[in-house]
Amino acid sequence: MNPLRITNKIAASGDRNPHRRHVEDITHVMMHRIEVFDDGVLCDSAESIAGQFRAHPEWLGTPDMPYPLIVTTSGGIEQACPLTTVTPHAWKWNERALAVGWVGDFRTSEPTNQQAACANIMLPILVQAFGFEADNLVGHTEPGLEKATRHPEKVCPGKHMDPVSLRRLVEVGLQAKARETLREAGMVF
Ligand SMILES: [Zn+2]
């Protein structure tokens, strides 16, 4: 059984961004926080977040949806546009990094338990799907990334979603998957 359930919201999110890349051009998976409100209500879906960018480009910086993938507070994965869409999320990294937007503000709050469970399942598979190592998973403003933001004071996704821990989680997840495959094939550890 496939433990990942991805809800396709591409049409509903109003994807109009024609700027595409090849799958091979993607070199990193990048974590972001996204917390926007519509009339005081948290936008907790790909559709509503894309709608806020379309409606308020002057203060969100762009009318285009920055995140092909959104992880909602209930741990659901929603897709807003194809992974090969070049989206405006990290300045000079837009062409090569695939953006995952986690709903919340991880400067001040922990991910929900469901989001943590989603990270465990999704991130190793996502990294593996592009032939990456755990090191290819990064946080938007973590030290060492050159020109990933125009705003030096920005902190994304925040200390409660630490990329170092996520990379370790990916390593452990990839090992677990490999061992499971070997066990299924009859190997005894
Ligand atoms: Zn970000």
CATH superfamily: Peptidoglycan recognition protein-like
The sequence of SSEs as H and E is EEEEHHEEEHEH
Task: Name the beta content range.
Answer: 15-25%
Provide the number of structural domains.
1
- Rg calc: 17 Å
Number of strands: 8
Number of helices: 4
Please list the strands of the largest sheet in the order they lie side by side.
Answer: 1-6-5-7-2-8
Structural class: alpha/beta
Principal-axes shape call:
globular
Contiguous low-pLDDT stretches (5 residues minimum) are none
In CATH's first tier, which class applies?
Alpha Beta
Helix content: 25-40%
CATH architecture: 3-Layer(aba) Sandwich
Bound molecules: zinc ion
Walk me through what this model shows.
The protein has 189 residues and is α/β, with parallel strands linked by helices. The protein has a single domain, classed as Lysozyme-like. Helices cover 28% and strands 16% of the residues. The strands form 2 sheets. Strands 1-6-5-7-2-8 form a 6-stranded mixed beta sheet, with helices on one face. A two-stranded antiparallel ribbon has the order 3-4. Strand 5 and strand 6 form a beta hairpin. Helix 3 crosses helix 4. The protein is globular and about 60 Å long. The two termini are 24 Å apart. The mean pLDDT is 95. The chain binds zinc ion. Zinc ion binds next to loops.
